[in-house]
Amino acid sequence: MQIVTRSAQLLLDLLFPRKCVACKAEGAWICPQCQAAVAPKFLFEPVTPSIFGLFSMEEIVIREAVHALKYNSIYEAAYALVDTLALATTPQQLRTAWGVKSVQGAFVPVPVSNKRRKSRGYNQAELLAEAFSPWLGMPIEYHLLERAQGKTLVGSNRAQRQLQTFHAFALAENARVNAQTAYILIDDVVTTGSTLKVCRHVLREVGAQNVVGCAFAYRHLDNARDSHSFSG
Ligand SMILES: [Zn+2]
Fold it and tell me: 2 CA to middle of ligand 1, Å?
């Protein structure tokens, strides 16, 4: 099985050579030089006391890797991002910051709508959670939250979007939270934090005591104009 996987990977590398999303050097989605350059810019920006962004979207490496993950089906960009994070911090530090040091923790990827999952074929937040999971040694709860079916947010005004976001997430049918578990909501980009706030609210309403939101990239509101697809 491993040999087959390795051969398949070699073939894939031949057909679609990995190129650094930022400097285009061949060999990796984020090359070692770009990883080393961006890692010291790890910021752990609090949007609220319970919601964080790990790196700025202003960093071209981060922006391009998130874009590749979100729009170009480059699943491995999630691992490249987490590998970059691993140069900046340690699992122990993250666990402490997330409040999961003395309790068990679990990742909860922010769900995308069924429509978007169909058109895109995947949920980028799940891919990020899958890259985080082995590094942090924490499982993923795939079926805790679900997305209510609604209209697309693009084109609505701000108040309408906020209202839609508020009704966009729900606890999945038959799902339960464990009050002793610290839940780490994972998303790709955070701007106002509205999406993560609503997801956090849903979990806390049903008894989760420790819920934090974490997005890989933090986009400052001033830079979020005309980019609703990236906001939330
Ligand atoms: Zn590079």
Answer: 29
Query: Strand, helix or coil at 103?
Result: coil
Domain 18-230: CATH class, spelled out: alpha beta
The helix (run of H) or strand (run of E) holding residue 199 is helix 194-205
Nearest alpha carbon to residue 30 among 2, 5, 55 = 55
Predicted TM-score (pTM) of the model is 0.87
Decide: residue 146, CB within 10 A, 0-12 exposed, 13-18 middle, 19+ buried: middle
Contact 91, 84 (CB under 8 A): no
d(CA 42, ligand 1 centre) in Å: 17
Query: Residue ranges per domain, the chain?
Result: 18-230
85: which 2 tokens?
């994070």
Query: How far apart, in whole angstroms, are the C-alpha atoms of residue 136 and residue 122?
Result: 22
The per-residue pLDDT for range 174-199, each reduced to its tens digit, is 999 999 999 999 999 999 999 999 99
